[in-house]
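Quick one:
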Amino acid sequence: MKEQIARDLLRIGAVFFRPDEPFLWASGIKSPVYCDNRLTLTAPSVRDDVENGLAALIREHYPRCELLMGTSTAGIAHAAITGHLLGLPMGYVRSGNKDHGRQNRIEGRLEPGQKVVVVEDLISTGGSVIEVVDALREAGADVLGIVSIFTYGMKKGLERLAAAEVENHSLTDFDCVARIAAEEGYIRPDDVRRLLLFRDNPADESWIGGQL
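Output:
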């Protein structure tokens, strides 16, 4: 499944490598990769692979799950479709409280003690998804863990997840996608080492311009 999802994401341009012309993240970090998993929603065959894959991860790792909660906004559709496949209710967590109405941050019915799995599209440094986990725990949820489409596997993200005592299971990861990208000609084989240097330390720009 990991390799199939990697091929899917590359084929539709949801993961796009550009090691010689880095993208600039909002944090200021220069990145050789751009990830837009929203594109999976407009590619039905890939969407099927993703949603069935997420459902399989939940069945395997979180069989006691009672409710799915998507991250706002990218995880909402995936939580809804996966919830439909599993016959489970779903909701989502906003990035902040609404400024009108009931001023909810958590949308959908959540009962205290309910066993919840968070659905995320991608994980980099882990900050945003941990905020969602924290909000759910504060509301009384028993958060079993996270499922996501893609993870960078960055050290900072792994450390944050460990500190929050929450596990994540992804359909595919940066290492696998980079390897498949080289095999299928999206990037040069010698680019893979540069990409892994970025993954290991995004603040170190020695990989840019072919520097190793």
